[in-house]
Automatic annotation (TrEMBL):
UniProt-listed PANTHER family: ELONGATION FACTOR P, ELONGATION FACTOR P (EF-P) FAMILY PROTEIN
Pathway named in the protein's UniProt entry: Protein biosynthesis; polypeptide chain elongation
Gene3D superfamilies, per the entry: 2.30.30.30, Nucleic acid-binding proteins
Protein's job: Involved in peptide bond synthesis. Stimulates efficient translation and peptide-bond synthesis on native or reconstituted 70S ribosomes in vitro. Probably functions indirectly by altering the affinity of the ribosome for aminoacyl-tRNA, thus increasing their reactivity as acceptors for peptidyl transferase.
Domain annotation Elongation factor P C-terminal: ranges: 131-187
A Pfam family this chain is assigned to: EFP
Cellular compartments annotated: Cytoplasm
Biological process terms in GO annotation: peptide biosynthetic process
Keywords: Cytoplasm, Elongation factor, Protein biosynthesis
Domain of life: Bacteria
The protein, known as: Elongation factor P
Family: Belongs to the elongation factor P family.
Organism lineage string: Bacteria, Bacillati, Bacillota, Bacilli, Lactobacillales
GO molecular function: translation elongation factor activity
């Protein structure tokens, strides 16, 4: 592992800091008129999911964390564990539901995801930017409604509830954004 300083921070870099593994989400170099320069950053703890704002000073050093990402296919749920298969080696891993709670509302059988690991420890399930889900339940569509209307709640096949335009009906396939927690993008 390489030791780096505050000037080496980059978005997406994974570092060991305060006995945990953090991914740099944002950073900004600040050069005040008075005093030494510093870096303001937003870090995500890959073990807990917590996001913290951290300020680094010129003497601060930390190690990079060598994480691995493996393409895997989601297979099924078994007694509270979710089973994924490596698409190259066909090895299977089980991940407890509480470890991937945020991802479950987007996961469908046979979906390709990336599993992030650090020294064998599973840290994260990286979903595609968008997923196609079917509307399981919503109020009937309003004829002549536009996408700019107020919207209505819709429950997707995975249990995810999102706001959709008034013209959407149960059974419609929708493209849903996973980056922001599940916003309607368009019909599929």
């Amino acid at each position: 592992m390489a030791t780096i300083g505050m000037n080496d921070l980059k978005t997406g870099l994974t570092i060991l800091y305060n006995q945990s593994i953090w991914r740099v989400l944002e950073f900004q170099h600040v050069k005040p008129g008075k005093g030494a320069a510093f870096v303001r950053s937003k870090l995500k703890n890959l073990r807990t999911g917590a996001v913290n704002e951290v300020t680094f000073r010129p003497g601060d050093k930390f190690e990079t964390a060598n994480i691995a990402q493996t393409s895997m296919q989601y297979l099924y749920e078994d007694a509270g564990n979710h089973v994924f298969m490596d698409t190259e080696t066909y090895d299977q891993v089980e991940i407890p539901a509480d470890k991937i709670q945020d991802s479950l509302k987007f996961l469908l059988e046979n979906m390709e995801v990336k599993i992030t690991t650090y020294e064998g420890e599973i840290l994260d399930v990286e979903l595609p930017k968008t997923v196609t889900l079917t509307v399981a339940e919503t109020q009937p569509g309003i004829k002549g409604a536009t996408a700019n209307g107020g919207g209505k709640p819709a429950t997707m096949e995975t249990g995810l509830v999102i706001t959709v335009p008034d013209f959407i009906n149960a059974g419609d396939k929708l493209i849903v954004n996973t980056d922001d927690g599940g916003s309607y993008t368009s019909r599929a």
